[in-house]
């Protein structure tokens, strides 16, 4: 089985780290257990050797003969001869008594005896293998008379085979337990990883379907966690993409209709002008229609280009200090005749003076034109549109209010989204307010839309007032001087 993805990362990282930790713990525990066993055996041997020395000292022996007799009696009555071997050395370094009944070969070395004889502590300790290959731990103590004469030594030796067998058994048990724990971790970990990998694989499969345009795909939410949250997010994304796709299709259909109407008019009048004879009135009316519809086409194309610039973050502003009042007045003037022809009233409550604004006058005029165009489009005959301008704190507020059909509450939050149209029966591409919102934002302003279905709509543009830094500093200086 080839591991890849999350499984491989989990095996290499988490499981590898866990195995390493268990390995270190097992080795450390093995060392501690071995040290505990060896330390216990060593202490037992040393206590036995001290026991012999105490017996010898209590008997106040001064001759080699007394030492030998007492040693023989001690060895014969030693109760632990089955687990511990005793050897008695004379002062000539020869083994004269052994609890096993067999004296060692002369060539066999006893490093602990040499250490005990020549060490100031009168004791030697040795761990190693005998000539037969048996692992031993031995302790030797040298014995002196009351006059300080060297009498010999006693050596206690214990086979470490049983102790090592116990230690190895403990080690094997630890290894088996560790493997069982690691196996449990692997099984539980793989189950956990699978509970992540399977939903993620399902999500990837569904996401590919969404990428191919199937926005009706739904991911089943199996867990109430981050995976479940991801499923909800992708389902929401699919729903939004579906809505956007529908709006885009409506947009294309609407724009196609918007482009077809003036093109049909232009084509029709061009054919009429080709066929008609010298009719000045017909020629004049035809040319006027062609110019009007060409301007309408230009307006639609400009809107599409602006929308493209917004979408690709390429819209540039040529900012300068401008009289915003002049731009508002020019936009209102452009729609006076249209409002009159459509039997609607356009009211402009023009203030005498307004503070300057730092902005792009062409783009701001486009904002006002788009808003007024929408207001007239969605206002019935006999209704009125009013334009009010006020200064609030450090901002200029321009409000466009109509008493038309209004915007339903469910559409109000989406009205500035691209392609969105609350009423698809009306002409328009659905990108006008999206462009307006973007231009206002680029000027550091804010667009507010309040509406109630059946009562009308108020669109308010808030733009920051331009304050010259030098003038502001002079103003602050004058205030400080007056204080």
Helix-strand layout with pairing:
Blueprint: H1 5-58, H2 64-76, E1 85-90, E2 95-98, H3 111-118, E3 123-129, E4 135-144, E5 150-159, H4 161-211, H5 226-275, H6 280-311, E6 320-322, H7 324-341, E7 345-349, E8 357-359, H8 361-377, E9 384-392, E10 395-402, H9 409-412, H10 432-442, E11 446-452, E12 456-464, H11 469-482
Parallel strand pairs: 7-9
Antiparallel strand pairs: 1-2, 1-5, 3-4, 4-5, 6-8, 9-10, 10-12, 11-12
List its salient traits.
single chain; 483 residues; Beta-Lactamase; Helix Hairpins; 5-stranded antiparallel sheet; 12 strands; 17% strand; rod-shaped
What does this structure look like?
The mean pLDDT is 79. 56% of the residues lie in helices and 17% in strands. The two termini are 85 Å apart. The protein is built from eleven helices and twelve strands. Strands 2-1-5-4-3 form a five-stranded antiparallel beta sheet. Strands 7-9-10-12-11 form a five-stranded mixed beta sheet. By secondary structure, the protein is of the alpha+beta class. Helix 5 (226-275) packs antiparallel against helix 6 and helix 8 packs antiparallel against helix 10. It has helices spanning 5-58, 64-76, 111-118, 161-211, 226-275, 280-311, 324-341, 361-377, 409-412, 432-442, 469-482; strands at 85-90, 95-98, 123-129, 135-144, 150-159, 320-322, 345-349, 357-359, 384-392, 395-402, 446-452, 456-464. 21% of the residues are buried. It has three domains: 5-166, Beta-Lactamase (2-Layer Sandwich), CATH 3.30.450.20; 226-311, Signal transduction histidine kinase, dimerisation/phosphotransfer (DHp) domain (Helix Hairpins, Orthogonal Bundle); 320-470, 2-Layer Sandwich (Heat Shock Protein 90), CATH 3.30.565.
């Amino acid at each position: 089985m080839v591991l890849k993805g999350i499984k491989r990362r989990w095996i290499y990282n988490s499981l590898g780290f866990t195995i390493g930790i268990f390995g270190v713990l097992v080795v450390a525990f093995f060392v501690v257990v071995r040290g505990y066993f060896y330390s216990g055996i060593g202490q037992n041997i040393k206590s036995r050797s001290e026991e012999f020395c105490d017996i010898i000292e209590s008997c106040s022996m001064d001759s080699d003969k007394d030492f030998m007799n007492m040693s023989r009696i001690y060895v014969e009555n030693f109760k632990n001869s089955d687990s511990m071997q005793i050897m008695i050395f004379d002062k000539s370094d020869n083994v004269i008594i052994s609890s096993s009944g067999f004296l060692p070969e002369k060539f066999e070395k006893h490093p602990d005896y040499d250490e005990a004889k020549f060490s100031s502590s009168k004791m030697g300790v040795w761990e190693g293998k005998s000539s037969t290959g048996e692992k031993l731990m031995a302790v030797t103590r040298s014995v002196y008379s009351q006059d300080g004469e060297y009498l010999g030594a006693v050596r206690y030796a214990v086979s470490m085979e049983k102790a090592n067998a116990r230690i190895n058994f403990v080690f094997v048990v630890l290894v088996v337990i560790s493997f069982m724990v690691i196996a449990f971790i692997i099984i539980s970990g793989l189950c956990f990883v699978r509970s992540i990998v399977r939903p993620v694989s399902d999500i990837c499969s569904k996401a590919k379907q969404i990428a191919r345009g199937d926005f009706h795909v739904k991911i089943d939410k199996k867990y109430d966690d981050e995976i479940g949250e991801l499923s909800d997010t992708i389902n929401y994304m699919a729903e939004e993409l579906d809505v956007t796709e529908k709006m885009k299709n409506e947009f294309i259909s609407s724009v196609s209709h918007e482009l077809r109407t003036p093109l049909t008019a232009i084509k029709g009048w061009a054919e009429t002008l080709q066929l008609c004879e010298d009719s000045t009135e017909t020629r004049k009316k035809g040319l006027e229609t062609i110019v009007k519809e060409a301007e309408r086409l230009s307006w639609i194309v400009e809107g599409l280009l602006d929308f493209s610039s917004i979408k690709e973050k390429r819209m540039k502003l040529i900012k300068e200090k401008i009289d915003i009042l002049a731009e508002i007045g020019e936009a209102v003037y452009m729609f006076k005749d249209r409002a009159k022809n459509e039997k609607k009233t356009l009211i402009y409550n023009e203030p005498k003076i307004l503070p300057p604004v730092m902005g792009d006058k062409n783009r701001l005029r486009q904002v006002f034109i788009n808003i007024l165009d929408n207001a007239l489009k969605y206002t019935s005959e006999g209704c009125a549109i009013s334009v009010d301008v006020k200064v609030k704190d450090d901002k200029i507020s321009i409000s466009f209010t109509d008493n038309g059909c209004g915007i339903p509450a469910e559409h109000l939050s989406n009205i500035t989204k691209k392609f969105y149209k609350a009423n698809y029966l009306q002409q328009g591409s659905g990108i006008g307010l999206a462009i307006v919102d973007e231009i206002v934002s680029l000027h550091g302003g804010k667009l507010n839309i309040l509406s109630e279905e059946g009562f009308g709509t108020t669109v308010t543009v808030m733009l920051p007032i331009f304050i010259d830094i030098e003038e502001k500093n002079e103003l602050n200086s004058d205030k400080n001087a007056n204080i």
